[in-house]
Each structure stands twice: as structure tokens, then as C-alpha cells.
Design goal:
alpha+beta; Amidase signature (AS) enzymes; 8-stranded mixed sheet; 3-stranded mixed sheet; 16 helices
Length: about 475
């Protein structure tokens, strides 16, 4: 590996730099893709971040991108830039396997809207990123593709469910990755691997995908997804820099009325005229932070203050505590509907993890919450959305941990039932935000004992630019070296 952080190979360049170099004919897309393929060959056998890499297919798309540029076509913002696509996302010609052997035999006939958006911007899909079975763990291993390792420390999780996406980025295999998030699945892996993860406002990036079917004795039946998928899950980018994440979010922003939560156009949000306020929420009173987590928060708060933000620390935030508790109710009861299918084909690890999840939810809501409890949970969610939007508006952000702990030890959720129950309160920053649908970014803030520590920034609805500006201030002052430095 190079002894300097100065880029010497195309795979070391940011997506923004690559796009600029390809447009300016300093590099060809073929050169970039070949460089990334060489990096994948060098490090992926150990990390297992990317699966189903098809070099000839990627190189053919790169040659086509170069030919279009030579013919005078106007290049898109990501023209010729490689990107990974997660194994739970429809990409034509690839099975949307979710890491489950029983789902690996039916290639998708079309692309999900987020993949279409990346292609239309000129990006070249280069490999599928690994995840846990059904994307339902904060770890990334499954029976179909095996385990993904954290490139910083193989004994720590790379995060889940977009662990392959984050690990591939951190190790230099691709400059950009697509992921999705319903309980931290973009933001947590990004933090574990020392990269940037963006969870957009629900509706900003289309969550539409071609219809999914299940085989039954009566024939294929179209699957209907539960409310949490429509109102809490999002598609979004992971990147090595905030600038790259902003660029990827821009091209993925595809208002789409086929998406049941999609908006016809993203509202234009003016920058605040005055000082932006940042409220540091260190804890919600349910669990204490590891000292390194607090040090990362202190570093980020100081960086923001240095950049001109008005930073205050709050003594807890009951609204977020209630939101994290609601996530345990609403998501769990929606998963209960598909539990027989997961038990039948998901594999031993995800089923063990699910038992821990249901035990954690039962401690909060009882073994089997009734229908009025579930309905009232959705009603309370709407109230909390209003309250948080009133609090944040367009000129206030929240600064929180990503997790109360460092990146978990591998398989912490299935190694011991007692340990599994400890993970859920630690992950309150990851669960409280999705249930309300607000935008959030995780950005590296500190490197300690060989592990990256990130922080989370949360803004009002459709205030992604405001959040990314603050993340940029943290990144500029943290100045973490890349993994290969």
C-alpha cells in the first residue's frame, strides 16, 4: 500500500475528482474501472465487501461511456464513475437475493429507480455490495455470500445492513455506493468504516422498484410491503467525502409519484440568514456512551463552533427517546407479518438475530401488542414528526452519536442473548430518526485506537444541504486520513 495519502492511482481519487478527470479527458472511464477492478482483486478476497463483480460487463459500460464522450455527448455528473449496488436492490440482470440462496435464481428484469438515476447520471455499476440476509442485522453476513469484514478491524462489524457498501468504499474498491436505511443501514456502516452516509428525507429519493413476486401453489403473487417500508425506509448514497455524498444525493434525487411517499418536486430550501444553531444530544437517558464516543462528539461540537455554528448541549431529548421506542413497535409488528417466510429461508443467523430483536421489543411493548397499540403508534408518530419539524425548522440541527458504543464485535447480536439486548438501547440514534423520516448524515469525526468514530447530524425535512454543510465543517477539521495512508 502507498505510504502517503496523496492519490497515486485512479482508485484513490474521489468521485468528484474522477468525474472531473473523465470529463476533461485526463482519465478514461476504462482506466478508472480497470484501476478499481485491480483494487478489488487485491483486497476483496480478504474483506468480501463486493459480490457478483462482472469485469467484462463493467468494462463494456466504461467503453460505451468513453465512446459517448468522444462522440460529443454531454456527460452526466457521474459520467464513467464506478458505483456499487446493494444486493437487496433491483439491478437488471442480477438477482435481488437479499443474501438468501432461495432468492438467488431469478435475475431482476429492470432497475430500481435509484439505480436508474445513477445510470442516467453516467455512473458505471461495478459489483454488488454484501449485506445480511433480508438486510435485517447491524452486521453483514449471510448464507449465500458469507461474511464481510471491517477493513479497519476484522473483529468489528462493518455495520449493517449496507456493510459491504461501506467496507468497499473504505478499502478503495469503488468511490461511491448505493445503500438503503430503515434502522441505521446506511449511517451505521458508514460510521463503522470511516466514510460518509446520507439518509435523505423520505420521498426525496424514489424508493420505487419493479414489482416483487412470491411463488405460491396457486402461482406467483405480487408482494405488498408494510407501512414502515413506505414511510421509514429510504435509498441513499455512501461516499468517502461529504462532497461526493452531496453529488451522489443530487443525482439520486428523483421525485417519483410511483413511490407512495414520493414528492412531485423537492422544495427549494433557502439558506438561513442568521447563525445556524446545533443542539448536541449526547444521550436520551437510556444508556451511557463509551468514552471514545463522547470524545468524537466533543471534537465535532468544537469543529462546528469553530466554523461559526452556535452549539448548545441539551440534557436529553424525550422526543427522540419516544421515537426510538416507537421504532421498536412499528418495525417489529410489520416484520411479524413476514416472519414465517424469514424463518423458512433466511438462515440460522438472521433468525437468531430476530429472536433477540423481538425480545428487545417485547421488553418495551409486551409479547404481542394489540391492534389499537399499533394504530396509536402510527398516530403518535405523526405528532412527533410535527414536533420535531417545529423544533428544527430551517435553521437548527441536532448533533448526536451514531451509537453509544464503538463498532460492535462481530456477531454480537447472536453470540449471547444478554449481549444482543444491549445493542438496541445503544442504537437509539439510528432508530429514532427513520421512524420520523428526517434527513441525517453520519460523518467521521475522530480516529482512536485504530477505529473511526463518526457523529450524526440531523436536520429538518428536506434540509439535506444544511446538514451536509455542517458535515463538511466536521470533515474539514477532522481531516482523517484514508485507510490506505
Amino acid at each position: 500500500m502507498p505510504n502517503s495519502s496523496r492519490p497515486t492511482e485512479p482508485w484513490q481519487l474521489s468521485a468528484t475528482e474522477l468525474a472531473r478527470a473523465i470529463r476533461g479527458r485526463e482519465l478514461s472511464s476504462v482506466e478508472v474501472v480497470n484501476s478499481c477492478l485491480e483494487r478489488i482483486e487485491a483486497v476483496n478476497p480478504r474483506l468480501n465487501a463486493l459480490v457478483e463483480v462482472r469485469p467484462e460487463e463493467a468494462l463494456a459500460q466504461a467503453r460505451e461511456a468513453d465512446d459517448r464522450l468522444a462522440a460529443g455527448d454531454t456527460p452526466g455528473p457521474l459520467h464513467g464513475v464506478p458505483v456499487s449496488i446493494k444486493i437487496n436492490t433491483d439491478q437488471r440482470g442480477y438477482a435481488t437475493s437479499n443474501g438468501v440462496p432461495a432468492l438467488a435464481g431469478r435475475p431482476a428484469e429492470g432497475d430500481a429507480a435509484c439505480v436508474t438515476a445513477l445510470r442516467e447520471a453516467g455512473a458505471v455499476p461495478l459489483g454488488r455490495s454484501n449485506s445480511p440476509a433480508f438486510s435485517f442485522r447491524w452486521f453483514s453476513t449471510n448464507e449465500l455470500h458469507g461474511r464481510t469484514l471491517n477493513p479497519w478491524d476484522p473483529d468489528r462489524t462493518p455495520g449493517g445492513s449496507s456493510g459491504g457498501a461501506a467496507g468497499g468504499l473504505a478499502a478503495g474498491m469503488v468511490p461511491l455506493a448505493q445503500g438503503n436505511d430503515i434502522g441505521g443501514s446506511i449511517r451505521f456502516p458508514a460510521a463503522c468504516c470511516g466514510v460518509v452516509g446520507v439518509r435523505p428525507t423520505v420521498g426525496r429519493v424514489s424508493n420505487w422498484a419493479p414489482p416483487a413476486f412470491a411463488d405460491t401453489p396457486a402461482g406467483p403473487v405480487e408482494l405488498d410491503f408494510p407501512p414502515t417500508v413506505h414511510l421509514c425506509a429510504v435509498q441513499g448514497p455512501l461516499a468517502r467525502t461529504v462532497a461526493d455524498a452531496r453529488l451522489a444525493l443530487h443525482v439520486m434525487t428523483t421525485p417519483d409519484l410511483r413511490d407512495s411517499a414520493g414528492v412531485p418536486a423537492v422544495p427549494v430550501r433557502p439558506r438561513p440568514a442568521g447563525t445556524v444553531r446545533v443542539s448536541l444530544v449526547r444521550s436520551i437517558g437510556t444508556v451511557g456512551n463509551h468514552p471514545a464516543v463522547d470524545r468524537a462528539l466533543d471534537r465535532a461540537a468544537a469543529s462546528l463552533a469553530d466554523a461559526g455554528y452556535e452549539v448548545e448541549e441539551l440534557d436529553g431529548m424525550p422526543l427522540l427517546a419516544e421515537a426510538a421506542r416507537l421504532w421498536a413497535l412499528l418495525l417489529t409488528e410489520d416484520v411479524r407479518l413476514i416472519l414465517p417466510m424469514i424463518e423458512a429461508i433466511g438462515g440460522a443467523d438472521v433468525n437468531t438475530a430476530l429472536r433477540g430483536h423481538f425480545a428487545a421489543a417485547a421488553a418495551l411493548w409486551g409479547e404481542r401488542p394489540d391492534l389499537p397499540t399499533y394504530i396509536n403508534g402510527w398516530a403518535r408518530r405523526a405528532t412527533l414528526v410535527t414536533r420535531l419539524q417545529e423544533l428544527l425548522g430551517g435553521d437548527r440541527l441536532l448533533l448526536t452519536p451514531v451509537c453509544a458504543e464503538p463498532a460492535f464485535e462481530q456477531d454480537a447480536d447472536i453470540s449471547d442473548p444478554k449481549r444482543a439486548l444491549e445493542l438496541y438501547p445503544a442504537m437509539w440514534p439510528m432508530t429514532s430518526i427513520p421512524v420520523l423520516g428526517f434527513p441525517a448524515v453520519t460523518v467521521p469525526a475522530r480516529l482512536e485506537d485504530g477505529l473511526p468514530y463518526g457523529v450524526q447530524l440531523v436536520g429538518g425535512r428536506f434540509e439535506e444541504d444544511l446538514v451536509l454543510d455542517a458535515a463538511q465543517a466536521v470533515e474539514d477539521r477532522a481531516a482523517l486520513p484514508p485507510l490506505w495512508a
